[in-house]
Amino acid sequence: DNLLRALLVAAILLLDRAGSLPLWLLFALVGAIGALTPATRVGLGVVVPRLVPDDARTSANAAIAGTEPLATIAGPVLAGLLLRAGGLGAAMAVDALSYLAMAAALAGLPSRFDADAPEPDAPKARLHELMTQPAVAAVTLLSALFFFSYGPTE
Fold this sequence. Notes:
This protein has about 150 residues and is mainly α. The protein contains six helices and no strands.
């Protein structure tokens, strides 16, 4: 999803520079960027247990959880500084480059995960089992709404 986000951010920048970015298209591109937020969160939930040994998993999850608020606070500050110093182009370019840097970092991960990690068994059956519980279904739907609403503001 990081490569796709980089492309979408770059598309916003390039279309804006060309004077071909109507408001509806901006909303569509930003919505697509936001829609990718759950992919990152799900990816973390799949990758961390397979890359981090059991005894270090709590620390790894804590480190991940600690970076989210930091990014939420520091990101807008950095964007404001970039906007002030270099304008919209600089801020959008750094944003696109940050997604490319993340994609490059992820490309360096092992292609084969821990063979001892439990394999997901019948994901559709597990999803059906979860979604038939009203509380789980409600929280899942509210979370999806939150991510789709909040994601574009990241």
